[in-house]
Amino acid sequence: MDCKPLTFFLFLFFISLTESTIYPSNEVNLLDSKASQGELGWISSPSHGWEEISGVDEHYTPIRTFQVCNIMEYSQNNWLRTNWIPRKSAQKIYVELKFTLRDCNSIPLVLGTCKETFNLHYLETDEDQGAKFREHQFSKIDTIAADESFTQSDLGDRILKLNTEVREVGPITKKGFYLAFQDVGACVALVSVRVYFKKCPFMVKNLAMFPDTVPMDSQSLVEVRGSCVNNSKEEEPPKMYCSTEGEWLVPIGKCLCNIGYEEREVSCQACRPGFYKASSGNLACSKCPPHSYAHQEGSVHCDCEKNYFRAEGDPASMACTRPPSAPGNVISVINETSVILDWSWPADTGGRKDVTFNVVCKRCWPGPRQCEPCRGAVRFLPRASGLTNTTVTVADLLAHTNYTFEIEAQNGVSSLAPALRQFAAVTITTNQAAPSQVTVIRKDRTSRNSISLSWLEPERPNGIILDYEVKYYEKQEQETSYTILRSKGTNVTLSGLKPDTTYLLQIRARTAAGYGSSSRKFEFETSPDSFSISSENSQVVLIAISSAVAIILLTVLLYVVIGRFCGSSKSKHPDEKRLHFGNGHLRLPGIRTYVDPHTYEDPSQAVHEFAKELDASCIAIDKVVGAGEFGEVCSGRLRLPSKKEICVAIKTLKTGYTEKQRRDFLSEASIMGQFDHPNIIRLEGVVTRSKPVMIVTEYMENGSLDSFLRKHDAQFTVIQLVGMLRGIASGMKYLSDMGYVHRDLAARNILVNSNLVCKVSDFGLSRVLEDDPEAAYTTRGGKIPIRWTAPEAIAYRKFTSASDVWSYGIVLWEVMSYGERPYWEMSNQDVIKAVDEGYRLPPPMDCPAALYQLMLDCWQKDRNNRPKFEQIVSILDKLIRNPSSLKITANTTSRPANLLLDRNSTDITSFRTMGDWLESVRTLPCKEAFSGVSYSSCDTLAKTSAEDFKKIGVTIVGPQKKVVSSIKALETHTKDGPVPV
Ligand code: AMP
């Protein structure tokens, strides 16, 4: 046997073989001849057929090969059988053969039949059969031919011709099998035999683990469920298919890393410190946003630093934020009783965009800072809270009032940190407001060419009405041309009008604050040119005229007869009563006259004429607020059908009353019901048909003026006090215009509402004085509030509007002294005596000189010298219009405890020099009176002119009077003791 050439080519071949020893990962070897270090121990049959040969590769690693080349002999049948190969889980196996084969043509002198193929067989068995080998048991797999064969010259050129053939076998069902190589006369070297099966190898796909999987033998795929890697969860069940070729196909579904974990190197790993992951998903962990931290691994969120917060709904990726700083640069622009507040965006928005602003309104009083939240009437435009712009308009504030507005910037985390909230504040004082609308206009007289009208002052004048603008035009002209008149008073006559023409008219009031809004349009008609009577009506008209003439004649006749025979008898006709109660007052056109309910024979008739009967079911009583002469006074609510509920005061008549008491009780309603004025308490109605009998009036939140002032001692500005006084004077003017004499005008009988509007109340007749605890019996038997009553009324019951003016002077004093008791603790007798002798109350502390002068004027002994209420209103208006006139006070020292001024000796305007004046007041201890100024003796003082007096600050009547009062006080102290009465 010529082995030399074969061995030679085998050596060359090994180089190539070692290059292919790395197998694909999806192939699992069952047999690899090359891996065997020792003898393979395969069975060769016959034994001189296949021959096992040892060699080395280029690394000198030994390998085992088989060869056969019996080409010189005939009928070759050489078998080589492998050892038993267990199939494991494989069903389908692959056989890879690497071999070389000699080209028959290249062999000279071939004796037998030279072949260029060999056969591959297999045999399945459940167990190793050892050396037992029977050819016929084997099944042929294939005939293996060389793709490349080699020749002798090839060997000389050292060209390698290695063949690799792979055959599939299967399905194998038994536990193992043998392979056999049958040579039938070829020259072949079997370099390596590898038997393997294919699998789908372990794989992590979409964070799901798929195990090693052996495919099926058939064409079908194996469906494999994956399991999620650690720290992840299925989003959709992960699945893949293992193909027969050991390949993973069609991945479906996936797993997602849990919160706090991110995907790294096909696994889910915890977020590093300083990072977080709030949602599951295959996103990377995020860095903690500003002002937050995460110290732990695997954080699902970052915690906020101190004083930083996260609002509900803030995403974890958002920076932690804090409440904004206060808004800056608050600017207020006051327009009458509204104010526009403007501010700038806070310097620090806290890191958020959802900044809004809230404005809180507080009403404040001077002195020790006292504020309370503004009431509901104040309007914010567009609103008070949740403002997105840096401006708001606050309307419907009270005039001349101090307010503080707190503006807070808020953002989404403000509510989490109340302690860090900041606001900016601004304090303002409102101005005067324009007057409200004129609502009541009356036609007093019409002629062919003129119309006389009068109207009521607007309910809220908000200052002194300078004049009224009356605009009118012909209705059919549609305002294309119109006429404007101005009127100082509340009446006007429009003249030069066309006869029988309809005119439209509007009135608006003007104050220093400007025009109020115009009234609604009122329609008036002038009289026709003449009566034109159509023929068919003439007879009827004639009869009507004759009847009217007859009635007038009859009435005149009756009046004369009755007047003669029943001169003083009471009449029931209101018009006649007007004559009776005219009281010598000048009536204004269009203003009604007061009717004394006592002139009614049946007083309940008067009640029903002037007061509305209310159904008790419309009244809800809340609480008792005071005690009246006839029963309790309660606060409550009145809801009339289809009207808004209002707060009311309810006076009740206690049970067990006499008929006279009932009459007297209701007489107040009969009187009140006749009045309609913003400074007179308004009657809502009466309940007489059920019990308890009630009088229902508007509710005055601040109760009676005297106690109100005592409660708020020194808390109002002079303008506010004068405003209140003006209201009272205006109400009294209305009463006196109507011919009503109050008789008991005193601060305790004035009520104050929440807007500081004062209204005159407590009306009655004889009972007024019965019910007043201040009223005392006079020597003549009547009961009179001595300290408030004019001397002539005390002396001989001469009650007139002029005596009301005296009382008004006392009210003026009460107001300016914040509810001090007139004449303090002096007895009534002493008061009567002192006043009679010409002494008057001194100016209250810090009282403007002009107001004290007004008091003194009201206390003129001769009632004809006292001002009328109309004049008082006008004086007060002038003072309000010129507030600097109120700065000059009537005294500079503290309130005198028990001093009275002698009016007769204090009119210093009549003195040429100070010497004259001092002489007149019999000044004695001047030193003390003028201590602190540069006057040291009476002599120097006496030589001082009025001009000099001015230099030390005593410039006007009031303070000089105060000086006088001090001097007089000292004098009286020296002479007679403290009180000169
Ligand atoms: P009079 O019977 O008017 O003297 O009332 C007694 C007290 O009841 C008064 O001093 C007030 O405190 C209170 N009062 C009377 N009328 C009203 C009202 N309209 N609103 C509020 N309080 C009132």
From TrEMBL:
Gene Ontology MF terms: ATP binding; transmembrane-ephrin receptor activity
Intrachain S-S bonds: C69-C187, C104-C114
Active-site residues, Swiss-Prot/TrEMBL: D744 (proton acceptor)
Xref: SUPFAM superfamilies: Fibronectin type III, Galactose-binding domain-like, Growth factor receptor domain, Protein kinase-like (PK-like), SAM/Pointed domain
Keyword set includes Cytoplasm: no
Alphabetized UniProt keyword annotations: ATP-binding, Cell membrane, Disulfide bond, Glycoprotein, Kinase, Membrane, Nucleotide-binding, Phosphoprotein, Receptor, Repeat, Signal, Transferase, Transmembrane, Transmembrane helix, Tyrosine-protein kinase
Signal peptide: 1-20
Protein name (database record): Ephrin type-A receptor 3
Lineage: Eukaryota, Metazoa, Chordata, Craniata, Vertebrata
